[in-house]
Amino acid sequence: GESVGLHLPTLSVQEGDNSIINCAYSNSASDYFIWYKQESGKGPQFIIDIRSNMDKRQGQRVTVLLNKTVKHLSLQIAATQPGDSAVYFCAESVLTGGGNKLTFGTGTQLKVEL
Amino acid sequence: NAGVTQTPKFRVLKTGQSMTLLCAQDMNHEYMYWYRQDPGMGLRLIHYSVGEGTTAKGEVPDGYNVSRLKKQNFLLGLESAAPSQTSVYFCASSYLRQVGNQPQHFGDGTRLSIL
Predict the structure, then answer these.
(1) How many helices (H) and strands (E) does chain B have?
(2) pLDDT tens track for A92-110
(3) Cβ of residue A107 closer than 8 Å to a chain B Cβ
């Protein structure tokens, strides 16, 4: 079946360094790819999304790259801060008339070391 | 503006008991969703609703029922709780998608344990 997965379950970075979180997907029919951040005890929080016809999208301190050739998605966080410590999920969305249903990956734990 | 509010935040049930989880959103969103999150796994869609009075099955609907009698509320029911339903349940809502992606907004979850 279709799946969205992550290469690394845990990523540790030094404060101030850049972080790169990777995600592999298998559904070539996905219309959007989305990154969510989940802090301990909280619900997922939307970070950024990218449409399938784009290669790159930038937000505030974050950049998402999409490589459709190898079905790979990455989230880059610039100048990582302690507040960035969380679990990051990628998700893919196939736009249908029946709602915006998401398929989530298993998540990557980002730990920021001081 | 509270966003998405879930009640209760924690609950312990015995096998066979029933309960209802309540989700309320104040953003006038058309779409609402219920997910479950288990250790080492991503969120999985249980049921969803595209508008008041409508519901549909998601990826893992067995053992759950839902109702959307009012636009702002989405209820998730467990008729006869089983230990396999021990999980963290998240509710989400989003605008009707007309153009592009409409991000889902999540509540902070209900932690449910079935003994």
Answers:
(1) 0, 11
(2) 987 766 667 788 988 999 9
(3) yes
